[in-house]
Structures are given as C-alpha cells and as structure tokens.
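Reader question, answered in our methods column.
A reader sent in the components of a multi-part assembly and asked whether the whole thing could be modeled at once rather than chain by chain. We filled in our standard form and ran it. Here is what they sent:
COMPLEX SIZE: two components
ENTRIES:
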Amino acid sequence: MSVVIEASNLSKRFYLGERNQRAFFEDVAAKAVSAARRLANPGKYRNPNSKRDFWALQEVSFQISQGETFAIIGENGAGKSTLLKVLSRITQPTTGTVKVYGRLASLLEVGTGFHPEFSGRDNIYLNGAMLGLSRQEVRARFDRIVDFSGLEQFIEVPVKNYSSGMYVRLAFSVAAHLNPEIVILDEVLAVGDAIFQKKCFDRIEEIINEGHAAILVSHAMVAIRRMSQMCLWLEHGRVKMLGPTHEVVSAYEKQTTHAVVANYGHAATPDAQVPPPEPVARLSGWFVQSKLASDPHTLVSGQAAVALQFKVEVVRALPSCRASISIADVQGLTLFLHETVMPATEPGHVTLTLDLPFLPLKPGDYILTCSLSDGAHAIAVLRATPELNLQERSGERSTYRGLLNLPANLTVGT
Amino acid sequence: MPTADPIDVYDPPRPAAPLRKPTYVVDAGKLLSSHPRELWNYRGLYTLLVKRDFVAVYKQTVLGPLWFFFQPFLASLVYVVVFGQIARLSTSKLPPLVFYMSGIIVWNFFANCLTQVSYTFLGSGGLFRKIYFPRLIIPLSQISMNLLNFLAQLLVLFIVIAVYRLHGTRIEISPMIFLVPLVLLAMSLLALGLGCLIASATVKYRDLNIVVGYTLQLWMYSSLVIYPRESVPARLQWLLTLNPMASLVEWYRASLFGTERALLGPAIIGVLIILLMGILGLWRFIKSEGTFTDSI
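And here is the structure of the entire assembly that came back:
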C-alpha cells in the first residue's frame, strides 16, 4: 500500500502571552540583545527558548497509507488540532516535514467562506473553489451536492436568509462531495436534524469505503474503535503510542479510566454487545428533548427533565415483547436500563420515549441502546448513532467527582 | 449509491492512483505556498472572489450603484468650493471639477487597494484558519475588484467631460491615454507591496490599521491630487520626487488630458521605490502567512 501522508519529526512552538506595549518593547530589547551577542560571538549564538514559548507538538512522526482510517486521540490540549493544522497547511511547523500525496480536505471546516449576500448556488461554487476544485469539477458535482443538502427550493435564495441548520447542511454537502484523496473528520458530526445526521454518517462511511484515507479525531472511543485501523495517541504534544487501534485505545482507556474513576465492574467491549444485525426492526433516528438540548444529540448538563426519543421502524410483525432503553458509558458499561412491555406490533413506525426527571451523569459521551427481547433472547439491539453528548455547563464549577452528578448539597455545621 | 445517469459527468469514486510525487510538502525550513504555479491553480477562486466583492458593493447600499457613482462627483464638488473658490489653487488649464474628479477617482483606487490589502490577515483571518489556499489570492482579488470600480468611475468622468463639451468647453483627451494602464499597474504594485508589508506587521501589532487611514489622508494632500506640480515651490520639489504617488498621479493626468508635462526623472525614481516595496512586501507576506494563525 502506498503512503499518502508521511510526517517526520514535527514540532510546533507557540508564543504565549499578549501583544501589548510592554511585549513590544521586550521584543525589541530581546532582538537587540541577541543581535549584539551574535555580533560578539558569530556562528555560535542561538536564540534561547523564551519563557512564553509553548511546544504544542514535539517530534511527532507517523505515516498514513492509502485506504487507511487513521485516528488521533488524546486529552484536550494534547496537540491534535495543531497537528491537523500543520497537515492541512494552515500553519507552518517549527521543525520537521510533512509530505502529502493527494488532495486533503476537512469535512468540518467548511461554510466559513460563505458570503451572506449570495445565493446557495453561488456559494457552492465559491466554497468549492476555496477547497481547491475547478469550476468544471464543481459543476460536475453540483446536482449531487444540492440533492444531498435537500435544499433544491432554496438554492437561488441568498444564504443570509437560510436558517443555521440549512446553512450547515449546504456546507457539509459541498465538503462531502469533494472526493479528496485524504479526508479529515474532526470530532463527531453534529449537523442538522437526526435524519440529515444519519445521512452524513452514511456518507462518511461511504467516503471511507471508497478507499480514501481518512484522519479521524474524536473523543468518542466507540467511533474510533469502529472506524479506524491505526491510532496515534498524543500526550502533551508527544507521541505516547502509535499502533493498531484496539491496542492504543485500550491503553488510552486504561489510563484515563484509572485517572478519572475507579474501574467499576467489567467493561465489556462495545462491539461484543451487538449481535449480527437482524432485519426485524431498524432505528430510523433518535433525539433528545429537553430545554437543555442544544441539538438533537447534545445536552448541557443540568437538572431539567429529559426525554430520549427513539424512532423505530418495525420491518416484520412483532409479537408482544420487552422493549428497553439503556444508557452506557463509552467503555460499554451499562449505567441504567429501563424496560417495558411492548404490545404486538405491525410493520410500521413506533416511537419509544424514555422520560427522566433529569440526567444525573457527568459530562461525556454516552451510548444509548434500544433493545427488543422476548425475555430470553434479543430480537433487536439498536444502537443510537451518534452517541449522546453531555456537555459541561459553561462557567459551572463542578463540585462533584465520579460518574454521577446527583443533585446534592453539602453543608458544614458545628 | 445513486444510479448512474448518462449525462452525469460526476467522476465515480475511485481509489487514488499511487502517486510518486507529493501533492505538497510542508517543511519547517521552507516557506508555505504562494508559489506562482499554485496561484495559477487557484485562478478560479480569484475570479469568483473578484466577482463576489464587486457584486457585493452594489448589493449592500440602498442607492446601490448610484451612490457609488456619485460619491466621487460629490467629493469633487466640495473640493471645487474649498480649494477652487476659497483657497484658489491652480488646476492647470482644466475645469476644476474635471481636475479634482480625475484625481479623486484614481486616489480612491489606490487608497482602497492599500487599505484592503493591509487588512488581509485581520479581515480574512477566520477563513485562513479554516481552509488552505494561497493567501495572496485575497489581496490580488481585492486590487482587481478596485480596478473594476475605478473603470466604472472613469466612465462617469467621461460623462462629465461630455457634458462640458456640450456646453462648449473643449477638454482634449490626450493620445497618450494608452499610458494610463501602465500607471494603474504601478499603483497596484505599490498598494500590493506596501499593503502586504503592513498586513504582515498587523499580525503582531493590530492597531497599525488605524494609522493607515490617517496616513492616507495626509498622503493624498502631498500627491498632486488637488493641485498640479507647478503650484509647489521649487525648494519642496524634492519631496514630490520621493513620493511615487505624486509622479504617478501626475503621469496619469498627463496621459489623460495632456495639460501637464509629466517629468521622467521622478517617475523612474518612483518606479524603483515601487519595485523595492513590492519585493519587500511580498517577501514579508510570504514569511508571515505560515505562522500568522499562531498569534492572532
């Protein structure tokens, strides 16, 4: 297999601190001093590392082969975004080289070049051109892009009149049809409504299956395990581990789990849970309803009622059975499961709703599964994609630790 | 998968052929991008950006293009009163309105180019942080867009001249008019070079852009826009020689109307300064485009 990205010895230094008058004069002074030293000691003097320097990447090397999905994992601030920026020529590395064979495009950094006064049509051409396509290439893809976005009626309308959902749909549609040789998927997609999101995921899998190389950056280990073969683990800008995904992710999870909480029970590997697909029922979408929901699959943590709604398409007639909805963490440990009796069902659509007074969980990604069983055997296990994302309330200072975020009040008395 | 349509020219998904030569190389030692070949590859984007900005000017305002055409005309009227009637500056055998208006439109062209080019990193920073394309496309497209605007305003000037002719004032259009594009080219290069220089500096020092606005005002008054060379005392002539814009404005008006005799010496010095600025500006720009996202 041929190599599509070859990165060797990448380092990136950032300058921290503000640019103000003092910094300006310090700059000038430092330049003068170093120039003087250079004069006094030609050839030997090198600029010292300033205190404000911060190394976002240090000596990172790896290769990505054609047709491979390559994952990059690590804590926030480990250098994942910086690495992507270096790969896509947004910023220059301080040391090292990257060789890229083929067109590289990011699936999320799109829609930024849209001009509000222009129609959807004009913006498709403009966005395409920014992403490196010729006019002919955009024209060849135009119908598919419009078709995918589902915005046929609005394509001549200036995008300033679009809703934010329509805007993102158009942007994603352009990016999804670029046919780059290497595609970057940064974080799990949260685009549009549940149905469009499903479409996006299918399209991403299609792109990967088409034999393009992909770089996947995510905190959702489930997605990483499912989609990637090779994995790079960054820690403080350095390569902590590089190798087959299952090994790296296991090591990563072990470390983070130890670091965050004690390991409760046996965490089954998520993949082992899911039996081979049976065409009895299909999940056509899921979403969360709450005043805390920021999009169909994202919640902000807080104490308000939450309803998890599953739209299930029953393919074959079902006898009366047990239906359950479960919430598991990304390691696959079931945290909560609620069961009910579902009456005999004809083919068609049913909606299952799990009402909770609030969701007492710490921020993170959670796997939701809707299962149907006859008491002894599973009839259908429907895992919701994407995972539920529970976000930290901005500005909130967390006063708890652990898996649960229960409404609590700690008082001190004498 | 959607079914294939015979007239659909969409290229089918295919695994990329093994490539021997890298599409691009990011190297710490080398500068990013803006190679002439890559600029050429992105010419489609350049055309679209010029079109976008040009059309946007006409879509944004209530009066639309009307305001845009009248602005230099109105400004010229003010100058006619202030400089022509009150200060009584010479306008070298041209009707004051034509003299001021021709100067204002060409100065506006230069000033807008310089302002926009020096704003490249601050204005398009959001875009630059998301998508890669040769950054130089942005200033180049802005200069081209201003050139189109200038041509539109030149048309208005010719209408004014036609009205003068109808009323019996003969204003000759010089046969040297073919030199005007050369003058515009030189102005564009100056705006590009100086603008790129300022743009690179704004990466570190953002407030530099405010200075540009004030400086341009002062610069205009020293660039023969509202008075001809003959009004300048001999002991200050050297200042005009050091100012490339003074020579360029003079050459521009001389090639349009032939009422002034433009000097060759200051023009040659001006061109040398412009070339120096151009090289310096582009060099700084290319150096900054690789690292500017780190500090904004």
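What stands out: Chain A has nine helices and 19 strands. Residues 258-278 of chain A have pLDDT under 50 and may be disordered.
Send us your own complexes using the same form.
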